Amino acid sequence: MAIISDIQEEQQQKSPPQAKSASSSGSGSSSSGARVAATSFSTKFDRNNTSGFLEKVLEFLAQESDFMRRPTAERDLVAIFKAVEAKAKEEAKAETKVVAEEKSGKRVPNKGNGLDMEKYSWTQSLQEVNIIIPVPAGTKSRDIVYEAKKNRLKFGLKGQPLIIDGELYQSIKPDDCLWSIEDQTAVSILLTKHNQLEWWKALLKGDPEIDTQKVEPEPSKLSDLDSETRQTVEKMMFDQRQKKMGLPTSEEMQKQEILKKFMSEHPEMDFSRAKIQ
Predict the structure, then answer these.
(1) Can you give the pLDDT at residue 6?
(2) What is the pTM of this model?
(3) Distances (CA, A) of 56 to 35, 61, 134, 159
(4) Interhelix angle for 250-265 vs 227-244, to 10°?
(5) Which of 42, 77, 153, 210 has the fewest CB neighbours in a 10 Å radius?
């Protein structure tokens, strides 16, 4: 609809000066007529029948304006078609999200793989959880109530009910966590996960959970991980490659080495029937 209004507004701006003068000095019939045209178009948008909607739009434009005779008509038509298709996809995506949440009982994660709550929003990577909490403009650090423990988080403003107070979904490393005031209008809390190989389904236990199967992680490098986690991931990747090639995993190779060492230390024993399990 905005597109039609824009077209009509542009037509009014291109009207001859004398027409504008006549409308302002006369009864104002031309300007009121434009307003009637702008409000006379009415049809229901049905994303399952976008062609029918577009047909009515084009019919209206052809009858009520010189749109189809303009040199930019083809380009403008493409823009209209794209706008309608985008709206249809947006509505379909929103409905799919609602249906998925109702069916699974879990919510679709936000763009940061977390969830937008009533008083704050949280996002996550495999390593960290970031919480954004809007606060009154001018909030100072002395106004903040913050406490992060291994399995619990508390946050609020002095003299007011706590905004966050509960048991975390999984444990964190309190010494590696921090908070800061952003532009004096929001507080950002950064939590470092203890287990950096799993996605959190919620910030606090008992909160609405997200569907972690719909999480979309950003591309990352092994160098982004701490040494312990990196070694675990590298081992998992190595084992997967070995399995695909039909070769022993790192654990099986370790067992083979132990057996070889034992065999060399006990040559008197018969290991012909020995099997590695």
Answers:
(1) 45
(2) 0.48
(3) 19, 9, 44, 58
(4) 80
(5) 42
| Non-local CB neighbours of 6 within 8 Å, separated by 6+ positions | none
Which tokens sit at 148?
Answer: 């992060």
Which residue in the block uniquely carries the two structure tokens 């919510």? 107
The angle at the Cα of 160, spanning 159 to 161, to the nearest 5 degrees, equals 135
What distances in angstroms separate CA 109 from CA 57, 92, 122, one per listed residue?
Answer: 36, 17, 10
121 and 114 in contact (C-beta within 8 Å)? yes
pLDDT digits (tens, 9 = 90+) for 144-159: 999 999 999 999 999 9
Contact assessment for residue 187 and residue 180, using Cβ atoms and an 8 Å cutoff: yes
Q: How far from each other are the two terminal CA atoms of the chain, in whole angstroms?
A: 70
Burial 43-71 (b: 16+ CB within 10 A, else e): eeeeeeeeeebeeebeebbeebbebeeee
CA atoms within a 13 Å half-sphere pointing along the CA-CB vector of 177: 24
What does the block give as tokens for 269?
């024993």
